Structure formats: structure tokens, C-alpha cells
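To start, one record:
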Amino acid sequence: MTARSDGKLRIVVLGYIVRGPLGGLAWHHLQYCMGLARLGHEVYFVEDSDDYASCYDPVRGVTDADPTYGLRFAAATFDRVGLGEKWAFFDAHTSNWRGPLAPRAQDICKAADLVLNISAINPLRPWTEVVPVRVLIDTDPAFTQVRHLSDPQACARAHSHNVFFTFGENFGQPDCLIPDDGLPWRPTRQPMVLDAWEATPGAPAAAFTTVMQWDSYPRRQYGGMSFGMKAESFGAFLELPRHTTQPLELALGSACAPRDLLRKSGWSLRDPLEVTRDAWRYQEYIRASKGEFGIAKHGYIVSNSGWFSERSAAYLASGRPVVVQQTGFRRWLGATAGVAAFSTLEEARAALEEVASRYPYHCRAAREVAREWFDSDLVLGKLLDYCFAAPR
């Protein structure tokens, strides 16, 4: 499998923590760094500002080219997980490297065996273009492929990689409608370092919660199909609080979200910045929940993508059952407890009541689902096996 005789790889993870300094986003990327390190590899996190203003500052409420807040967030986060000396940030606007690896970052990248570009959110630069195995992980299936088919620059960025994985685990199946962009996608899913997630007893009186954006970007159109956001999926479930005894709470982003209408329909709303201000507050919010009630992007549903949320995987790892909208993931996720899928309002109501009626059982099952399907040793071991076995 490995490129070195001692079995130890040098791996550079390209991610989005300085520019996206929020708890859920941080854990999404940390799982790769921590999981690969657990497998015994030499792992570094490198982030690029890209060539446009993309640094979010939740205190100032702006996105601009200033990484000050994100750099402090990253330093505190990596210190706490034991990777404090293992990261760097390249500021393309000033051509400066920041972070503890700054003096050595380019040399480390050039000597790497593998670069793992999560969501292709970082451009490959001269110091990563020379890495022999360049992996793109698509975490936004259907939307990613439409982007490649309609945006030559995005397509060129994708083709600078030579191994391709997608969270759209049904890609290539006859009933999967993810547009074919010509790339050889392989299935993968969110890895979870289970030791980092404490599975505490759940509180039966707590609310089912989730953290979500109402809209992230405009819907995509391709081949006569429309691929929309969660806003387009949510309408059928607006009245759900009136049909269930279970309290439902949304930590809801997006300025355009119809908050007054949601409150009138019985939904409780939280400020998402309050519950995602750092990675540990995010974990606390999940543990304080009864479970997750999750809506999927319309595009994931209509394409029958097989996508499964990294956030839902975090609930499972915390011993919290999830009631989530069906995207076709039942094709590969065989669990019958801990994960309840729904497509209609009545199915959602029944799933919530079923989980509540046997709550301790579903909590135990949730952690076992995380162990069986999302454990980082399994997910990342399989990914690496393919990377060094397949021709490129």
C-alpha cells in the first residue's frame, strides 16, 4: 500500500479551518488529520487563502482577506488536539506563510507522498502539484459534478488531481442521477475518530436538533434537472412540530431563512454562531441534544446521491440517534437502529416517535453505527489502500 519502506506516509491535508473558523467545519477537517495520524502516518494540515477574499470572521460578521481571527482559532484548535506544530496557512494576498510550519511548509509539501484536498477548497500550488498522489474528496455530490461540467476553471482545478473520492456513494449506480463529469469517482464517507467523541447518556426530554444553512449558494441546473438547497427540501416538513410530541430545534444560518414562519410553525431556533464558536462547544451542543433531525439539500435527494452528512456522523459518534432525510444512503448503510430515514412528513413523524419510544436502545445503536460505518481507521485505511493500489 505505502510509498515508503517503513509503511509511514507523509500526508498533507488541505482543508478549511482558518477561513471557516467554526466548530463543525473544524471537526470535519480535523477528523482526517487525527485519523491519519492514528494510523501511524506523518500528517500536516496546510490551508491556502486562495486568490479571492475568503476569510470569515464571525466576530466582525464579514468575509474578507484578513485571516487574523481564523489564525487564532486554528492555533487554539490544533493545540488542543495535539497537532499544534503541524499546520501552516499560505496567504496568497501577501505571499506570506503563517503558522508554526511556515518556514518549512513548502519543503514538507514537496516531499509528501500524498496530498488530500477536502472539497477541493484549496488550489494546488507548485509545492503541492508535484506530490505524486493528489486526492480530491468531493463532499458536495451532484453540485461538484455540475460545477465541473459548467465551469472550465473548476474543471481544470479538479483535473490537477489524480485520485477521486466522493460522498455521493451511489455514483455510477443506474438509479443515481449525479451528472457524469468524466472523473473516476470512488465512494467514501466522513471518517470519525471515535476516541475524540464521548458517548454520554442522552436526555430523553431534550430536543432533536441540527445545525444548518437555509441557503448556501444558488441552485444548479444541468441536463434538465434542478439541484437546490435545503430551503427547497424543507417546505414539506414545515408543519412537522404540529404532528409530533418531540421538540425540534434548528441552529439556523442564512439571513434569508424565514425565521418568523418557522417559529409560528413550532420550531425552536438558535443562533448557530453560539453553538459552533469552537469545536468543543459544538460537541457540547450535540451531547445536549436528544438526537438529530436533519434535512438534506434538495440536490442530494433528487440525484439519489447516497450522501450522508458529516454532522450526522458526529451525532452518531456521540451516541445520539439521527432522523435524517433519505438521499439514497440506505443502499450502503445497513443499520436498522440509530439511524432513521424519512421521505415524507408522516415518515418523519413516525421515525421521531419510534426513536423516542426506545431511546436508550437507539442511543446505543447510534454509537455502534458510528463504529461500524464511520470509524476513521476503516474509512481512511480503505482510502489509502486504493490510493496506492490503483493506477493513475
